[in-house]
Amino acid sequence: MGVEVKVEGLTKKFGSQVIWSDVSLTLPAGEISVMLGPSGTGKSVFLKTVIGLLKPNAGHVWIEGTDIANCSEKDLYEIRKLFGVLFQDGAMFGSMDLYDNVAFPLREHTKKSESEIRQVVMDKMELVGLTGSENKLPGEISGGMRKRAGLARALVLDPEILLIDEPDSGLDPVRTAYINQLFIDLNAQIDATFLIVTHDINTARTVPDNIGLLYHKHLAMFGPREMLLSSTEPVVAQFLNAQRVGPIGMSEEKDADELASESGIEMPPLPPIPAQLDPSDGRPRRGQREPGKWCRDNNVTPPRGSFDAHASFAGASV
């Protein structure tokens, strides 16, 4: 069962360069959250800070009563046992077959026998659709299969928090759609807390229960999916709808001349909010909400056509 992750006033710098400052949010237990932002805004840095690989300059990351931003190495080691991580490129050991790659954390961090390890490894490989591929080397399989193998390895210690860095990187739209459905199905089955860093707008619009947006060295907004997909706040509306009009430019923030040139140009209307993906087997997820509930509860009128079964978004990745 997933656990809550509470971030308070988090600030990260590299030397004098501020990556982001005063970031506060709560990743609800058992729910899927996505973190978005223009390139170079520190999304992967945020992921590494949440797991304690990077120390923040200020702030706290609370997990089960422990502030991993300020705890001892011993306590951090124990808390990390709650995490599973899917790295951007899968991070497979090239000289090991998929079976040994997936088994690696069990051999390093548990005292399980080889027969017990085999049972766990085969269960996780079946879960991600890789049964029959256990003897293949990473160089012999596609990028999508490497992602799934990396996901199987992230799952072998039964994590309560799953961190996923750019799962769509290097994948075509079809494979991205398959892996998005896999995340929904896994969340329904293992009830872990998911945090996904991505640039893919379709992923952000159809997968998560919550969305966050890092922009201009701060957290622009974080909250339920419907809150951000119905927001008219310029940077949120621009990014989530892949528009050129708005404060984001090629080098992140537009200068005064660029913004002045857009004076009087209205942003396009928000596209319909699509239905969130459902688990393939129909089982309920903890974070799943009735379509339109947040909008109704907060007296927000969603974009026209929202929550229709056929509503879709044809935008490309930013």
UniProtKB/TrEMBL annotation:
Superkingdom of origin organism: Bacteria
Keywords, alphabetical: ATP-binding, Nucleotide-binding, Transport
Disordered, as annotated region: 248-318
SMART domains, per database record: AAA
SUPFAM superfamilies from the UniProt entry: P-loop containing nucleoside triphosphate hydrolases
Basic and acidic residues: compositionally biased ranges: 280-296
CDD domains according to UniProt: ABC_Org_Solvent_Resistant
Entries under InterPro entries matching the protein: AAA+_ATPase, ABC_transporter-like_ATP-bd, ABC_transporter-like_CS, P-loop_NTPase
GO MF terms held by the record: ATP binding; ATP hydrolysis activity
Residues in ABC transporter domain copies: 5-241
PANTHER family: INTERMEMBRANE PHOSPHOLIPID TRANSPORT SYSTEM ATP-BINDING PROTEIN MLAF, PROTEIN TRIGALACTOSYLDIACYLGLYCEROL 3, CHLOROPLASTIC
Protein name: ABC transporter, ATP-binding protein
Phylogenetic lineage: Bacteria, Bacillati, Actinomycetota, Actinomycetes, Propionibacteriales
